[in-house]
Fold Monocyte differentiation antigen CD14.
Amino acid sequence: MNVAVLLLLGLGLLEAEGRCFFNRTQEHCVCYSLSQESLSSIIQCLPASVVEFRGGELERYVAFPISDLDPSAIEMLGSLVIRKIIFGDLLVPEILLARVLRFFSYTHVQELVFESCIFEGRGNWAEMAGQDLPILSLYFHNVTSAPLTGREENFSSLSSWLETLQELAVTASHVTSLPCGIGRVFRALHSLDMARNSLGDESLMPAFCKGAFPQLQVLSLQRNNLTSYHSVCKSVQLLRELQHLDLSQNKLMADPSSSCQWPVALRIFNLSGTGLDEVLTPLPPSLEVLDMSCNHLHAVDISLSSLKKLFLSQNMLQAAPSIRNCPMLDTLHLDNNSITELPWDEVKLLGRLWDVAAAGNPYNCSCSGAGGVQALAGLVHLGQGWPQDYRCHSPPHYQGRLVKDVLVSALQCNSAAVIVPVCVALTLLGVAGAIYLVRSRPRLVRPCLRV
Ligand SMILES: *[C@@H]1O[C@H](CO)[C@@H](O)[C@H](O)[C@H]1NC(C)=O
Ligand SMILES: *[C@@H]1O[C@H](CO)[C@@H](O)[C@H](O)[C@H]1NC(C)=O
Ligand SMILES: *[C@@H]1O[C@H](CO)[C@@H](O)[C@H](O)[C@H]1NC(C)=O
Ligand SMILES: *[C@@H]1O[C@H](CO)[C@@H](O)[C@H](O)[C@H]1NC(C)=O
Ligand SMILES: *[C@@H]1O[C@H](CO)[C@@H](O)[C@H](O)[C@H]1NC(C)=O
Ligand SMILES: *[C@@H]1O[C@H](CO)[C@@H](O)[C@H](O)[C@H]1NC(C)=O
Ligand SMILES: *[C@@H]1O[C@H](CO)[C@@H](O)[C@H](O)[C@H]1NC(C)=O
């Protein structure tokens, strides 16, 4: 039998019709509101590596006696291949969870997911004291529970497990604060995803207090209630190992000259959709990836010596940014801006750049414009949008035409490059003609003179 069967038997979740569906290619098994009659259906989930339980109500089993397991059951749990268990659309009494969680210590389950669950009441976690669990990743999405503030003491019984946890996500769950003490428990955590909550500027400072999340490398604060760039910088300053910070979809404001220094390890920074109309400063100095797409930027001028990827799609740029001060750049995305020409000669200078996307811009195809984009297409990878999404906007007779289809005749276009040599050639011809005349004239004249 599988750990889930045991859990469900233990919990007495034996009502309503339901059954399990196993997808062999995906090694994924989904069970909908299991009942006692359909429980045999769960046997087919045994070879699955992912088991999902959807629907049901655990509330009425709070008082159900849960005894210890005998050695054969423990051995059987140890032989299961299940790596991930998902609980969805369930009402979970916290007290029940606290009682069954220790059974996971006999399994190899590494990921535990709760989606659209409601945690009810407060559990007594004392039985978990000193207990290790194999679970390394814990995800909560769209869950509600009693507030965490003031319960640090109670959760401290979970600390021998939580201090080994590597990934934690609590998303779309209306979280407004993270008490300082909670972060201090997660000593090995390297990824924390708090996307789509209601964290504000003032709740960040305590969340990342001294000693909290000392190993954290990846932090997502996407779509929260953050407004101050400076205050976010101050709050994460103590996260020495932080490499990847996602602040996308917050409405950030430029603070009058901020003096805060970002963690030096920060390499990936996401400021997409943050309402920016100028580049905020200071930027983390060792950035390799910077996403400032979906903002209102009119101009960008940055110099970051290790920057490799720069995303600026969906802005209001009138011109491609100068990339001379980003010598390591290999990727530059400029789709959906107001750029009329691409500086392909600069690209030639910067040999590393190979991935450029600049579809959806109003190209000026009068002359050098179309030629420049066509030349660029020969030098770099212009993305999936080439050629169908690269269109001329001006001059009027080219409007709507594909840039690729514009015939770029050398004479028409590069007046300086073509007209000058032509003039020089003509001048030389003229000079040659004159010299010929001068040289030949004596011959013509000589006979006359001789005569
Ligand atoms: C199993 O999942 C794969 C990939 O999603 C899908 O193509 C296939 O149809 C599924 N098989 C069954 C029996 O549902
Ligand atoms: C979130 O969870 C609640 C139950 O707690 C559910 O009613 C709702 O449909 C879920 N929302 C989404 C977007 O999944
Ligand atoms: C939580 O901790 C407090 C203080 O340590 C204790 O009095 C209380 O009984 C605990 N509650 C539960 C549900 O464990
Ligand atoms: C977001 O922050 C603003 C001010 O900082 C506050 O007025 C508002 O209530 C907050 N919204 C949420 C959902 O927390
Ligand atoms: C930045 O965040 C947005 C979502 O807000 C996402 O679509 C995008 O892929 C992220 N950029 C990077 C470089 O990860
Ligand atoms: C550019 O805009 C078009 C049309 O609004 C949209 O379909 C496309 O996804 C956008 N591309 C990018 C990279 O933002
Ligand atoms: C397009 O480029 C030509 C030649 O460089 C210039 O004369 C013209 O003003 C430009 N048109 C627009 C709309 O920028």
